[in-house]
Amino acid sequence: MKNTAIISRLLPVLTFLLFAASLFMVFIYVPTEETMGIVQRIFYFHVPVAWIAFLAFFIVFIGSIMYLWKRQIIWDTIASSSAEIGLVFATLVLITGSIWAKPIWGVWWVWEPRLTTSLVLWFIYAAYLLVRSYASEESRGARFSAVVGIIGFIDVPIVALAITMWRTQHPGPVIFGGGLATSMLITLLVCLVAFTTLYALLLIQRVSLKKRENEIKILQNDDLILEKDTGG
Amino acid sequence: MENAGYLFASFTIIWALVFGYVLYLNNKQKNLKREIDLLKKVREDENTESAINS
Amino acid sequence: MKFWNKVFAIVWKDAISEMRTREIIFSVLIFTILVVVTFNFAFGASAETMKLVAPGILWVTFTFAGILALNRSFIPEIEEGCLGGLMICPVSREVIYVGKMLGSLFFMLIIEIIALPVFALLFNLSVLSPQLITITFLATVGFVAVGTLFSALAVNTKAREMVLPILFLPVVVPIIISAVKASGQALSGEPWGELSSWLAVLGAFDAIFIVISFWIFPFIIEE
């Protein structure tokens, strides 16, 4: 018990410190890239956001498998919480990708492999959450969305492969030209760690919130039974 | 400093959406608290009722 | 071999009920041809343009028809309460999956066999190449492999058949991309070598998703 309390106190502080550090590195420490100018700095947040979108999806995948296997609600709670957060970050990937594309390539959207795959990922997240809300009962919703989570996760690499093959026939804009200078690499890594801690923080919050929601639902059902008895 | 607007926009959007999600979680927590308080009240009322009846 | 007997029984039951009413096959067929004609109007007249957009039109049409076909594979079961009857039978869930999948496969193949010549007629393209037939077959197998799974899922939700496209379309993006690209090459008369990478994607998709759907299906229809 004590350990989790310590972690839950430390984690927000750690997240804050990491983000302070990454802001410093992105805006003060790292040199400006020559070809793209200061807009290139979006890269230091765009890449971690994309990383989190995919990491969250991996957690959805694991949670879905474990739920179908063990049928313990906690796994469904983890999966659905991760899906919510993942959707937020998938949205951010698309938006920041667009904002980056506009000054660099002059258009808001490019059918570049990574962006396009992220678009499909966004739709699969949306399908996961929609299936949950459209199910007739909670337990069905959990089961069905677990199926979507599993199929979706296996599908994404194939989608990425097909899209990459499709786009290399008509070579499009490339996101990374050449290698990264060390300072840029370090900045990127700090940002990656910062966002990963943020994800962990959000996930833990969402999961504990969902657990309380589930407990309340059970209590409410109990109360209904109680009411019937004393209503007599 | 060309295109600084885009840089600002992207960072702001990230901040806005993450913050928005945090607000959404906060809202849910408030609703949860309300439910708990309601349930507590219902329980109290029932306890006093059965105390009176018995 | 009892497995295949049971599978065949399910396929046969669906085929008979379809042949008796013929309600779905005609509407899907007319729908398919209508979509092709509408696209024709939408994309104008020049022969070069048509050659470019033809594969895309073909596969969008088959995708829409496929969604209609897949919906019909489970909706009657729910409406007439047959699904409960099916589950009481001493057949494993996997039999139901394979049976439904093959039923949808045959249904779609029939639609495609009729639609392709119509398409060839309207677009002045040759569709009888073995390449195109292979592509169509592989892509259709992939559609029904995932589609049967999602259809069973969709009919159990409040929004029913409207959920199917939302689930289905993102997942089959690789099929659509590969089928369109490969069809384009096939219609230009390219040799097998050029198509091989796209056929590999289709083949891999089919193999992976037949296995996965087969394994996951029982989780959808358990009660």
Number of strands of chain B: 0
- Give the tally of β-strands of chain C: 0
* Order of helical and strand elements of chain C: HHHHHHHHH
Instruction: State the end-to-end CA separation of chain B.
Output: 80 Å
Low-confidence stretches of chain C at least 5 residues in length (pLDDT < 50)? Answer: none
Coarse shape of chain B: rod-shaped
Helical run tally of chain B: 1
Rough outline of chain C: globular
Q: Helicity of chain B, in percent?
A: over 70%
Broad structural category of chain C: mainly alpha
Distance between the amino and carboxyl termini of chain C? 27 Å
Element pattern of chain B in H and E: H
Label the structural class of chain B. Answer: mainly alpha
Largest sheet of chain C: none
Number of helices of chain C: 9
Give the % helix of chain C.
over 70%
Could you describe the largest sheet of chain B, including whether it forms a barrel? Answer: none
C-alpha-based Rg of chain C, rounded: 18 Å
- Largest inter-chain contact set: A-B, 33 and 28 residues
Question: Keyphrases for this structure?
Answer:
heterotrimer; B: 54 residues; mainly alpha; 0% strand; C: 223 residues
What does this structure look like?
- The complex is a heterotrimer of chains A (232), B (54) and C (223).
- Chain A has one domain (12-231).
- Chain A is 83% helix and 0% strand.
- Chain A has helices at residues 2-29, 43-70, 73-105, 113-134, 138-169, 182-231.
- Chain B is mostly helical and 54 residues long.
- Chain B has a domain at 20-54.
- In chain B, 93% of the residues lie in helices and 0% in strands.
- Chain B contains 1 helix and no strands.
- Chain B is rod-shaped.
- Chain C has 9 helices and no strands.
- The two termini of chain C are 27 Å apart.
- Chain C has 223 residues and is mainly alpha-helical.
- The mean pLDDT of chain C is 85.
- The interface between A and B is medium-sized, with 33 and 28 residues.
Q: In terms of topology, how is this protein built?
A:
The complex is a heterotrimer of chains A (about 230), B (about 55) and C (about 220).
Chain A: H1 2-29, H2 43-70, H3 73-105, H4 113-134, H5 138-169, H6 182-231
Helix pairs in contact in A: 1-6, 2-3, 2-5, 2-6, 3-4, 3-6, 4-5
Chain B: H1 4-53
Chain C: H1 2-21, H2 23-42, H3 47-80, H4 82-88, H5 93-123, H6 130-154, H7 163-171, H8 173-187, H9 192-221
